Amino acid sequence: MPSPLEKARQDPDSMKARILASARRLFGEYGYSSTTTRMIAGDVGIDISTLYYHWGEKLDLYEALITDLNDEILLKFEEVEQRARGKSLSERLDISIDILTDYLFKHPEVSNLILFGYFNKAGTDSVPDIKIGDYTSGIAVAMDLAKDKAHVPVQAKARILAVWNCVLNFISGENFFRPILNVDHSNYQKVVKETVKFMMVPAFTK
């Protein structure tokens, strides 16, 4: 029997999918601890019993959401690997920064959920996180900084995390940073890409 997540994926217009989309946005905005099932039900416009019928408890819904995001991010890293294969390191970096920043700007709740996972651990140790460690190793292999995921040098991991953290903070902090830069959203995206490349490409390639 398909899981609730599989059913939501099969029918994007279904009630399960609508609840999942609302949960993704609200958990991304407020974090796990501060988001309630009542908030999600109200956002969808349903009774809370309907939410429980489709997804069970709050943790069940959150676990499904994180599974969905982990799979989604994995597809992005596979896209990076496919498009970057065989190119020079500077070209691979350019491609990976473009793909990842475009994805995260399109889905800013992902950056927020990752940062919530970093900093809001109190009382939520059983809550699953987005698998940044796994993806860090994957991108190291895609960048040809390691031969396989089991043998990634610490320096390579740290540099990739530096790229991640830079992009995540620029995206989650857009409402703070963009007025300082005095640019619109479109130009802010361009500035972020240019800035990350300015800092990171020389760091990896020199």
Which key terms come to mind for this protein?
206 residues; Tetracycline Repressor, domain 2; 11 helices; 0% strand; globular
SSE layout and pairings?
Elements: H1 4-10, H2 15-34, H3 37-44, H4 48-55, H5 58-84, H6 89-106, H7 108-119, H8 132-142, H9 154-172, H10 174-181, H11 185-205
Helix pairs in contact: 1-2, 2-3, 2-5, 2-7, 3-4, 5-6, 5-8, 6-7, 6-9, 6-11, 7-9, 8-9, 9-11
Task: Describe this entry's structure for a reader.
- The longest helix has 27 residues, at about 60-85.
- The protein has helices at about 5-10, 15-35, 35-45, 50-55, 60-85, 90-105, 110-120, 130-140, 155-170, 175-180, 185-205.
- The protein is mainly α and about 210 residues long.
Low-confidence stretches: none
CATH class descriptor name = Mainly Alpha
Going by CATH, what is the homologous superfamily? Answer: Tetracycline Repressor, domain 2
CATH topology: Tetracycline Repressor, domain 2
Order of helices and strands: HHHHHHHHHHH
Total number of strands: 0
Number of helices: 11
| CATH architecture annotation | Orthogonal Bundle
Using the CA coordinates, give the radius of gyration.
18 Å
Helix coverage percent: over 70%
End-to-end Cα distance: 53 Å
Query: Quaternary arrangement of the chains shown?
Result: single chain
Range of strand content: under 5%
> What shape does the CA trace take?
globular
Number of spatially distinct domains: 1
Summarize the main sheet.
Answer: none
Mean pLDDT: 88
Please identify the structural class as seen in this structure: mainly alpha
